[in-house]
Amino acid sequence: MFHSAILIAILCIALAMLGFIYRAIKGPTIPDRVIALDALGINLVALTALISIVLDTNAFLEVILLIGILAFIGTVAFSKFLEKGEVIENDRDR
Amino acid sequence: MSLLHLAIISPFLLAILVPILYKLLRKVHAGWFVLPLPMLLFIYFLSYIPRTSIQQTVIKSFAWIPTLGIDFTFKVDGLGLLFALLITGIGSLVVFYSIYYLSKDKEQLNTFYVYLLLFMGAMLGVVLSDNLIVLYTFWELTSFSSFLLIGYWYDREKSRYGAQKSMLITVFGGLSMLGGIILLYLMTGTFSISEIIQQSNEILTNPFFIPAMLCILLGAFTKSAQFPFHIWLPDAMEAPTPVSAYLHSATMVKAGIYLVARMSPIFAENGLWVWLVAGFGIVTLFWGAFSAVKQTDLKGILAYSTVSQLGMIMSLLGIGGAAFHFDSSNNSYFTVATVAAVFHLINHATFKGSLFMVAGIVDHETGTRDIRKLGGLMYFMPITFTIAIIGTFSMAGLPPFNGFLSKEMFFTAMVRVLEIGIFNLETWGVLFPIIAWVASIFTFVYSMLLVFKTFTGKFQSEKLAKKPHEAPIGMLIPPTILASLVIIIGFFPNLLSNTIIAPAVAAIMPNFKVDVHISFWHGFTTELFMTLGVIVIGILLYKALPKWRRVYRLFPEKFSLNRLYNSILDVSQRASRTMTNRYLTGFSRTYLLYLFAFFIIILATTLFVKDAFTVKTNNLSSIHLSEAILALVISIGAISIIFAKSRLTSIILLGAVGYTVSIFFVLFRAPDLALTQLVIETISVALFLLCFYHLPKFKKREERMRFRIANAVISVGVGAIVTMIAMSAHSNKLFDSIAQYYVDNTYEKAAGKNMVNVILVDFRGFDTMFEITVLAIAALGIFGMIKLRLEGGKKNENQ
Question: Does the distance separating the beta carbons of A63 and B669 come in below 8 Å?
């Protein structure tokens, strides 16, 4: 019972990811794509969590945290790039 | 180290000192420092005569590489001593001559005498060493020092050409000789010539015997300027005349003769040896004599004459080798050829040395060596004329000079070829005396040409650069000594027979008892009438020379061997350049194509030749649905990278592949790998995007990758091969994994529960250290590439 519930959850998340992928490929503007990628990352978190339950292990909790951090950093970096045209400002260098 | 060793290396030691002395004592001609050494060595080697004349040999050894059987083993026997005396004796005369020939102020004398001493030492090493590798070492040293001496006036194009040519040809032969030496070593297990001679009967049927013989003969023929390798010798005449006199008449070109003589006891029992040595010798004799008549340059005539006379000595050695086939009882009949070879070797060194010196004097005093410009010099230089007459008449084989005696013996040997009756000599052997006789006629003609065109006839003062006069006394002494030797040996040939010739012949033919007696008068024999015929026809031909000179035009330059040599050089150079340009295209895609094509060819051949492709399914685990889906995703991602239209899509797809791999790591329970893979993939996708963003504008055409059938085939091939190898490797697991040790001991011995990390930092921490180093180097490299730009590099920055 519990197992099939997990499987259904995985299936739902996979479908959600397909939807986000469609948005990421299609997506008329760049912010659309960035948001889609961010959401994809969060879905990946959920997927990993569900797989850990299936595999009955707690070894992948760091992966979950890492994906969260990476998704955040990636989104912030992209946003800054869209805003200012560059990611790291290095005016102190020159 | 014995006195003998010291004697052989003394020229090298003096060669070190010469430049110092030259710098310190500029007022004295550098030749005076050099002169005492060859004279001392000559006297030293003379002291060996009493021992060698009673067939004693002196062997002195000094360890060099004893583990490989290579030692400085020097052996003085009759043959070695004869050559050592020639080298030191004529060496002294040549050094003396060069003191007067080379100007103290205009020439770089230090280099000249260094090269000459190097050559002298190397030549002594060649003729006295008993160890084949040592012999080869000295042999190459003679090639190098000869190269340096020919190119002495290195600012002249022709000198450089001649030096390069002689170097290429003699080193080619030298390397082949090294091959022969190694084959001999494989057969006998020793490098010592005397020990190889003792085993000569056993190696006769060895399969390496014939290749070894051919290799060694090639070395000897190239060095001794035998047909068709004689072409370097005439071009070597660009060297200063003392060098030509010393190297290219008396010593170096006889190194090949020495080698053939030395190797005779090993190889001569085989008929091929007799045929090759005698055959090449006689062809060289004829071709050299024939070509010499065509020359107009004094040294050119002498060069071809040297070629011809060397051919004569070589053919005599070949015929002499036939004697090895018989028992030593009835030998006296056939060994006459060897005696004649040794005798003519001495005679040739004397008269050819003097003739070269004469040519040098004529050149020095008139400014030209062209016989078309010379004439009537006998009134200006009577002494030179006398020396020239003696030398040329001896060369032509006229009595009472020594050339007459050796030519008579040569004819004797050639006539006896008819009676040998082995190695099929009875059928074609009849050619030997005929060719020999015709060649002697040409020898007579060019000898007369040499002396009479230069010293008699009309004096053409308007064609000469200088007003001719007799040479200084110092320049005349060495040729006078040689010319008087010509006469002394001519009248008293038996002075040499027991002291020098007999021991030398005994060294060439160790198992024979040779009675050397050179008689001045044979009686009315065939040989005498042959000589008379040579003289009569030779005079007629000389008189009629302008009429038949046209014969030489029948052989156009196009078919000459020089032309062949030049075109071989040219063609090989051009062909290799074309070839290199063909495959080195400069595109990395081509090189990758080669790499992968060879990868496929080699691995596929190995797989199928060894019949190694196997698939076993019994040790495979079952496939889950999630794995199958992930595999599908990763395949779709990878395939769509290839067909992606824009670069951005490729980068994103690559990222997708990377993330899917990390999900695989999750599925296959590798949390550490999954973590690392995620971070690294993110960073590298970011880096790719960085590169993409900075692409130059005009090249940012977004188009699909072009399809090339070869690339497709090769990529599919590589994939298939790797898959097959992976499958075969998986099916052939021979041993169990060692992983159980880590499972058991990670906590017990290393105090950790994360096995991956314990392996990385504890069990196999060394690898980790160097991977850290790799990352450090990469970081520093990137920093360096970005920060460090040389001056002027700014221009390229925003290209």
Answer: no
